[in-house]
Amino acid sequence: MILDSVRYSDMLKPRQKAVYLVHKLITERTINIFYGFPGSKKSLVVADMAMAIATGQNFAPNMPGQPTFEGYKTIKTPVLWMDYENGEDLSFERFTAFGKAYQADPGINLMYSCLPKLSKVNAQISLLITEIKNMPIMPGVIVIDTLLRFAKVKDENSSEMDQIMSTVRRLVDELDVTIFLISHSTKITGTRAGNSLRGHSSIEGGVDAQFRVNGEHNSDIVEIEPQKARRNPVDPINLRWTYQNDSDDQLTEARFYYEPCYAKATQANLKKQAINERIQKDLLNALDKLGAMSKNELIKQVGGNRQKAREIIDDLENILAIKVTPDGKAFKCEITTIGRGLL
Asked: Cα separation of 13 and 188, whole Å?
């Protein structure tokens, strides 16, 4: 049958609610992508989360001695890490360091595969699915690091990525697993982090949740910035990277802890308020110096974000700082005594 339809009456039947694998962050049987620039600690964040899931412990609790926050509860689930990026030496160093911080039992179901041998992903996906099903322990989570190397295409912007994302969805459906993809951000002149997921639009369209990881080499603070969530919105998270090295500079113990975002949120609000106040003053100054003019002309005088200027004009009209009256097909704006008092 080509078309397998469902009637509305069947849709009304009770269904199992979405289950959070990582509370408020990751739901089961979904595709989730973490991306950022090189050195942003994106793979480390996912490795920490993988250890939390494999041990059934909470991800990113407060540091000892800080105000109580238990972190994000997880459901204990076997994890398979498919590594196309770092190799065994570095990966084993990281996993053992996280395991020490979590006091992980050696028998936890955290499994690792270095450079799984797939010459063409789409053509050999059935073989991969069969091999995973035949593993002694069936994983509930599969991490793919990185998406580009797994896809075996020259460029993430290739239209072939549409087929690759369909293949990843097939892994979810046939194996009943949750997928974590690790990828890269775009490069923009003047900023390392860029502002978007790199690659073909089918990548963003094919994932259920998208997280941008912002971190710098010289900082222990890492921001997880949700960019997409099919279900409930996810708030940004700040993490503090903690680690210990031995005399050979090898990582021996590591874990991310929750870092309150209050200071950053306050700074962002203050910056937004300052921008709005500047636009308000520019609007009032233009009317005071140049006299009454149409709303469109006033916005041109100020420049910048036209929608933001319109919103502030409406606010000024509401507090009677600007008088707006119809003028043919346009609206005429003029400053009032209250408006001049704000200058």
From this structure: 49
d(CA 287, CA 301): 10
Q: Which helix (H) or strand (E) holds 322?
A: strand 322-327
Quote the CA–CA distance of 257 and 60 in Å, as a whole number.
Answer: 4
Q: Could you give the CA distance from residue 182 to residue 150 in angstroms, rounded to a whole number?
A: 10
Backbone angles phi, psi at 331, to 5 degrees: -125, 130
* CB neighbour list of residue 207: distance below 8 Å, 6 or more residues apart: 31, 32, 33, 165, 181, 228
Helix ranges (H only) for the chain are 8-11, 42-55, 88-102, 121-133, 147-151, 161-175, 201-206, 262-290, 295-302, 306-318, 337-341
Pairing assessment for the beta strands 237-245 and 251-259 based on DSSP bridges: antiparallel
- The per-residue pLDDT for range 201-231, each reduced to its tens digit, is 888 899 999 999 988 777 899 999 998 888 7
Global confidence as pTM: 0.74
Residue recorded with tokens 């460029």: 155
DSSP secondary structure letter of residue 28: S
